[in-house]
Specification:
Strand order of the largest sheet: 11-12-17-16-15-18
Mean pLDDT: 96
Number of strands: 19
Number of helices: 15
Helix content: 25-40%
Oligomer: single chain
Low-confidence stretches: none
Structural class: alpha/beta
Largest sheet: 6 strands, antiparallel, barrel
Shape: elongated
Bound molecules: manganese (II) ion
Radius of gyration: 25 Å
């Protein structure tokens, strides 16, 4: 992954002085053991570091200030081993600017029924200590994830792992820069949005750059660099006949390689984590960047077509969560409508003009060149492949004017017949709960045709992300019923307007 730091998560345990120094030492030992076990579980993408046992408002506030200030801290896992009066936490939580996860666990798994005494009771008090903490988090309207269960359980560790991946993505977005080459596609609505609001909400800066500046960088690429990259293409892909050195279309491949090298240099020099392109703004570029965008996405850059910077930001975040694996820019392109009245077996064919990430390729991609009906440029080179079958999600981030909504549909990618005349990367999937319900729900919610498509992530990650960002989440899954969903959308309009006020 390009431009990716590896911060750590801090583990913090809450208690109070009522118990005396002896029990507090034991509480601290227990907390350290819990943190070290979770850290060694292999379920967390970042180091989990035992940080402190906190017993006073001053300690709590100092720790929260330190966490907020330290760029190497991506978030906190908090646990009240014993009772920790929650008003002690108000000062600290008020200044905490990092995400936190509330682990509701207990040091002992099972009760020693025959031997239980008041000492045991005093040292296994999360049942009420964590309730006291939860009250204050709720009272302060703080977004957080609550994970319940014994700290050695695989499910608990996996839930913490999902949250830690989201915390990593959130940390990565703060201060991230995204470059737009050209504007949004003319007259398109859903790819538009308020970049000021996005910077306030997600911490990202999105700025436009002249295509001429990019062209200058493309033109500065040396022939030797182009040849080196073509060698890499030859070893990584099945290069189509006609594109090899000395063949009639080799010039197209050289142009594609030059565009990739120029874009890559521009993005690296500017420290960008993602970008957009627009086929209407290509002045001076010989081809619409297809192969270049695909390979840059595979290296972890966020991307959105037609100036869609919101999807570029979302793709970067999901790529960080997914560790760069099996996650792509996608577009709901066309349908296979089954004649069955239940709409079972109706399917969506997802693709884009060119730009689908090869991290979702089922096999070795083919490198081909074909005409493109729009853009008025030379034929662009692109990677052509099928995506694998299996569960996946589609996620869309829209701007409702004043606030953002994240929409997720759980889907199942399915096998499909050969597509010999469709020279683009593609995936075919069935939607949950079924085709008609899912599509009506998506359209009622205002979801875009552009999405981030991932085999590596589940709705849980989107829920955690929406919680950290403080935005609305709409999940379309096996439980979705349209009437309930329409009510949910109406109620959320009011809820988020009240909760957020005029801030965005
Ligand atoms: Mn598009």
């Amino acid at each position: 992954m390009q431009q990716l730091a590896t911060p750590e998560i801090w583990f913090v345990c809450g208690s109070q002085h009522l118990y005396g120094p002896g029990p507090l030492e034991e509480v601290a030992r227990n907390a350290r053991e819990v943190a070290e076990t979770l850290d060694a579980s292999g379920q967390l993408p970042l180091r989990l570091v035992y940080k402190a046992l906190l017993t006073t408002p001053e300690e709590i506030r100092a720790l929260c200030l330190e966490a907020s200030r330290d760029p190497n801290c991506a978030g906190l896992v908090v646990w009240m081993h014993t009772f920790s009066p929650s008003r002690m936490w108000i000062g600290g939580l008020s200044v905490l600017s990092k995400p936190f996860c509330h682990l509701h666990t207990q040091y002992n798994r099972e009760l020693p029924w025959a031997d239980i005494d008041m000492d045991f009771m005093n040292l296994n008090q999360a049942a009420h200590g964590d309730r006291e903490a939860g009250f204050m988090h709720t009272r302060m309207r703080l977004g957080r994830k609550v994970v319940v269960g014994h700290w050695t359980d695989a499910v608990v560790q996996a839930q913490l792992g999902a949250w830690a991946r989201v915390a990593h993505a959130w940390s990565d977005l703060q201060g991230a820069k995204f470059a737009r080459f050209g504007d949004n596609m003319r007259y398109v609505g859903v790819t538009e949005g308020d970049k000021v609001a996005a910077e306030i909400r997600f911490g990202v800066a999105v700025n436009g750059y002249g295509v001429g500046d990019l062209v200058e960088r493309v033109d500065a690429v040396s022939d030797a660099e182009v040849e080196g990259l073509i060698d890499e293409y030859e070893s990584s892909y099945e290069v189509a006949d006609g594109l090899h050195k000395g063949q009639e279309r080799h010039g197209s491949l050289r142009d594609g390689a030059r565009i990739e090298l120029g874009m890559r240099a521009f993005l690296e020099e500017g420290g960008f984590k993602g970008f957009t392109t627009t086929f209407e703004n290509l002045h001076g570029l010989k081809q619409l960047p297809g192969l270049a965008v695909q390979r840059l996405m595979a290296d972890g850059y966020g991307f959105g077509g037609e100036g869609d910077w919101k999807t570029a930001v979302l793709l970067r975040a999901l790529k960080v969560m997914a560790g760069g694996e099996r996650t792509s820019f996608m577009e709901d392109y066309t349908y296979h409508m089954s004649p069955s009245p239940s709409s079972s077996q109706s399917q969506v064919l997802g693709s884009h003009m060119l730009e689908v990430c090869p991290t979702i390729a089922a096999g070795k991609p083919r490198l081909e060149v074909h005409p493109l009906g729009i853009g008025g440029k030379e034929d662009p080179v692109r990677l052509v492949f099928d995506a694998p079958t299996g569960p996946a999600i589609n996620a869309s981030l829209i701007d409702l004017g004043g606030r953002f909504r994240l929409i997720v549909n759980e889907v199942e990618a399915v096998p499909h017949p050969d597509l010999p005349k469709l020279p683009v990367a593609r995936a075919v999937w069935e939607c949950k709960p079924d085709f008609k319900t899912a599509l009506a729900a998506w359209i009622y919610a205002g979801g875009a045709h552009h999405t981030v498509y991932s085999y590596a992530l589940k709705s849980e990650y989107m829920e955690d992300f929406a919680e950290v960002a403080g935005i609305e989440l709409v999940v379309i899954d096996e439980h979705t019923r349209l009437r309930e969903l329409k009510n949910e959308l109406r109620q959320n309009d009011l809820t988020y307007t009240l909760a957020q006020g005029l801030r965005n």
